[in-house]
């Protein structure tokens, strides 16, 4: 296990060399290794690194040169900017998938739409082991919470969209963000939406899933999550039920395993500083159980409260549900909003679903949900 950790660390550091600060003529760093047993070297060290945007664009153009295509150079760059974490084999698979989609349309030439649809089927190699298929949730799919959405955009989207502005002012984007508040208030949906809108790879883990009965496996799970995120950056690591991962170490309920997991998490968080475009987004309804060391500046240092929806938010949530259901004209949305003060967003959605089920139970041929 020690050897694997050393290899993982070396891979991470070598991938970090491929940036503007270390590839100029006067600052270029070359790693030279010597051995008489080349076959004993880990295969990952002998592979080319993950290509950047410009390299992905060049690979796409090279692989597509003998394939009829309607794409221009700007289209290839557009695809490259959205194929974070893709290696050459992934891009080759993407072109093959796009070709199949063009054939289904009875077209001889590939178009941009074929590539964009193909990307929903071809995942980055670095993400396949723990990649979670995320529904395409957009901001407009979440009713209300305009202030929360604004703060998430500023913390996650702005550093990617305006990197020169952050560099010019000398401001570092937050490494980690904690969404906290009652259950059922769209914290997970918020995380999915920010990943979708910002075109980020998304790794979602539930806190309790990290723990393993075998010694050292829980800490390894933490290291693996961060290694995958580094390889597929820009990415979001979403940790649900975060209080299970980062429980207070002086709490009477804490165990040796949970303490080691917290230490591993802190070590990885501190290591993210030299990396770019990896954001930790955590969610909990018990922030009081989280170890204070995790919430210090430079770690999870941005806290956003996601409370129960107010009147306007509940109206928007009801309206989103009404758009999906067949609702009778006698149903007054304002009455429902007034009757559900103190309800969570999940409970509002459940009311609409139960109303639809009740209508079907009364009459399987009913055409619309009525007020009663």
TrEMBL record:
Zinc found in the keyword field: no
GO cellular component: cytoplasm
PROSITE patterns attached to this UniProt entry: AAA
Keywords: ATP-binding, Nucleotide-binding, Repeat
One GO molecular-function entry: ATP hydrolysis activity
SMART domains (alphabetical): AAA (SM00382)
Protein name: Spermato proteinis associated 5
Origin species: Rozella allomycis (strain CSF55)
């Amino acid at each position: 296990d020690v050897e694997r950790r050393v290899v993982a660390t070396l891979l991470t550091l070598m991938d970090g060399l491929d940036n503007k600060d270390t590839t100029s003529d006067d600052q270029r760093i070359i790693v030279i290794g010597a051995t008489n047993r080349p076959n004993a070297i880990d295969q990952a060290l002998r592979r080319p690194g993950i290509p950047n945007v410009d390299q992905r664009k060049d690979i796409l153009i090279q692989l597509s040169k003998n394939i009829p295509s309607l794409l221009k150079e700007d289209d290839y760059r557009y695809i490259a900017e959205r194929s974070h974490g893709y290696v050459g084999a992934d891009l080759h698979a993407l072109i093959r998938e796009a070709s199949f989609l063009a054939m289904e349309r009875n077209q001889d030439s590939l178009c941009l739409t074929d590539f964009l649809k193909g990307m929903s089927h071809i995942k980055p190699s670095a993400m396949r082991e723990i990649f979670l298929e995320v529904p395409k949730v957009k901001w407009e799919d979440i009713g209300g919470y305009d202030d929360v959405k604004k703060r998430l955009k500023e913390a996650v989207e702005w550093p990617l969209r305006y990197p020169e502005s952050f560099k010019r002012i000398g401001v570092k984007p937050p490494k980690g963000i904690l969404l906290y508040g009652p259950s059922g208030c769209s914290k997970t949906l918020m995380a999915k939406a920010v990943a979708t809108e910002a075109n980020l790879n998304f790794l979602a883990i539930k806190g309790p899933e990290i723990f393993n009965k075998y010694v050292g496996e829980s800490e390894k799970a933490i290291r693996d999550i961060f290694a995958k995120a580094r390889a597929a950056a820009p990415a979001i690591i979403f940790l649900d039920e975060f209080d299970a991962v980062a429980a207070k170490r002086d709490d009477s309920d804490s165990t040796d395993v949970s303490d080691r997991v917290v230490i591993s998490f802190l070590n990885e968080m501190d290591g993210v500083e030299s990396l770019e475009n990896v954001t930790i987004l955590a969610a909990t309804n018990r922030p009081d159980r989280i170890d204070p060391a995790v919430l210090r500046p430079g770690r999870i240092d941005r806290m956003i409260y996601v409370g129960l929806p107010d009147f306007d938010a509940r109206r928007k949530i009801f309206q989103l549900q009404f758009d999906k259901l067949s609702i009778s004209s006698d149903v007054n949305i304002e009455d429902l909003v007034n009757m559900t003060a103190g309800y969570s967003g999940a409970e509002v959605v459940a009311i609409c679903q139960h109303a639809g089920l009740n209508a079907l139970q009364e009459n399987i041929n009913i055409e619309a949900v009525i007020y009663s």
